[in-house]
User: Fold this.
Amino acid sequence: MGSPDEEDKPGTTLPGTVEKIIKPVVPSESEKAEIHIEGGEDFYREIRVKNVLKDDKGEEVAIKEGARVKVTIEADKKDTTKKEE
Assistant:
């Protein structure tokens, strides 16, 4: 979240844990990190994403198994509606 436009986006951040690192079947593909998201519904708590992040110097790094992570979900204001109570 860097630019003013991004700061205006509605969003939420959920805690998670990297449950396992999945090696690619084909060497040219990226390995995946399977992340367990706390607060997700029973059958939808895990997501798999490419295990590639950038550090503060712009270098590519990978998440380690067991790492605590934050999963952020954002949307443009035009793509949201007021929540009914």
